[in-house]
Amino acid sequence: MTDAPFKREQLVNQPAIVGAKWWHEGLVVAGRREAIRNVAIATAGIAGVSAVIGLAVYSCTRSSIPDVNFQTAKSLEMQMTYGWDFGASSEPLTFNGESTEAFDRERVSKLADELAPLGSRYQPFYVSTLFRSIDAVPKSRLDGDGPFVPLKEALRPILTLSMTSAYAAGRTFAALAGASPRVVIVDLPGMDAVAFAAGASSAFDPIFLFDNWPHPRGVVRSHLTLAAAAYYQPLFAKRASDSSTNKAMPPMFVLDRERLAQYTDEASQFDNRYVARMPTLAGMQSGGKKISLVVADAGDPELDDLNDDLVNATGQGIAITKVAANRLSPVQGDAGTQTGLSQAEAPYTPIPRRTNFSSGQSGGTRPLPTSFGLVPVAIVGGAILGHRYARNGSWNRAYGAAGGG
Amino acid sequence: MLHSFFSIELCFRLDLCPNLLAILSEKVNAQSIAATVSTPQRHWAFYRGCAEACYANLNYAELGCWEFYDDDARAKRDYDEWCSAMVTAKTARTSPSAPSDIYRNEPRYMTFTMAFLLPQRTPCERQLARVCDIPESELWLRQTFGRILQGMRGINFASVKSDIAYLIPRDNDWGLTRADLSDSKFGYLRALL
After folding, report:
1. Would you place residue A399 in the very low, low, confident or very high pLDDT band (cuts 50, 70, 90)?
2. C-beta atoms of A368 and B60 within 8 A
3. A297 CA to centre of own chain
């Protein structure tokens, strides 16, 4: 064979596609006389690396190092690039309520698959971001970061009292409401939401909508959600593999009630908040013309990012009920069945309200939340040095500053 | 000269691997736009880098396909088809995709395709044939795609007659939608198991 160079024969360079065809001259059979065509379709320079940095840019004005800038970047993208512990590589996750039961650590790699909805029609709605953090490895590490510990190694399954109660409530709800077609939205603190879904999974098909990664300083304590999911993983896996399991159960969308948690201090907290990515509820007709919103207590309203969806559903004639998980007592037989559900469930009419996450009107366009899910980063010449307030960041020591803005 | 054909295409969720488009775009830019000639060594480095980037993000690939044929007529025909698909931008969008609604699960996707026309009975072609000797039941397993991507490091570009590599989209806001991928022109892509 030959070392004769490849020649570019065709080039495509458009916003929608970029690529080239190459021809190895030395391998072309003798006698081939065709001219090598170069049909460059477009010659505009390729767009640079897609920006991962966005929004407010503010330069440091008190710096003796002139080219360090502070910007904000999407938290999840920084975690995917530099590790789930971005800016806090030496800080541990705390798992209150660690389970002492046997735990197969290798199995958690299958979490995203084993907790996927059984019904194929629900799979497009499944948001597996949190579960996929388990095995993720960073594309690179930043100077000063310690050795990377995969979440799989840091994770501890948990079983708390509140999870036990939520699981029992889920079982009761399945027994009481499973025969009545409805779309269910579970909006409980993450670990309780997972437990409730596990309890109800005999009659409903859980569709998890957890769209963030854990972080040692995360305002959304999604490591606990993940830990609860790891605890119930064998239950979900068994259900999925059991040939007698009904694969056509009504949908149960499962949300973490902490997803819009208060974020007040960018130095001590990490903004891993996210919004619920629900499907259009009016399109879920086969689940019945009824939506049940499961919350911890009857007095809990839906979170702001659900308000528009529920208001619109009401406007389209879909009945909504609110179910208080703390009023779901264990089933005591047929007589108790009716009593149990009526004690916990009540009709609910959402009131339109204008917030950072809701339009305040039926059919309105929801606002895009600002300063949401972002992390402050230090940058030099387009390269990310690290989290603005990372303790190992030399830019912090140079400024003698950490905390505040 | 008889030919064999090898191709692999993977479809990734952009939101789950936000750096992959940039990484591959940068490699394609350096290899194919900035230069009109290349050497086997440069080709090897380019494809190795692309395969490694795809392998590192394989968990976020939802769809894919791969083929290896050592039937000369079919190899040339299929290779021409893949080349034609690139030149005509058959599977690319004709307009930017609407911004993704953060309140809905509407991810955007990218595809990366590599295809090769190889003379038969070279050590390289035979090695690739061995890499692609996969039992029927494992054809669509994610780990099979991983094995093939890793096997690409063994390609000797002194024995590759022609090759194409293309990325859809080039620009972030032209990402493919679920509706795009459900079109029959993407019917050859299957879900990775």
Report:
1. very low
2. no
3. 24
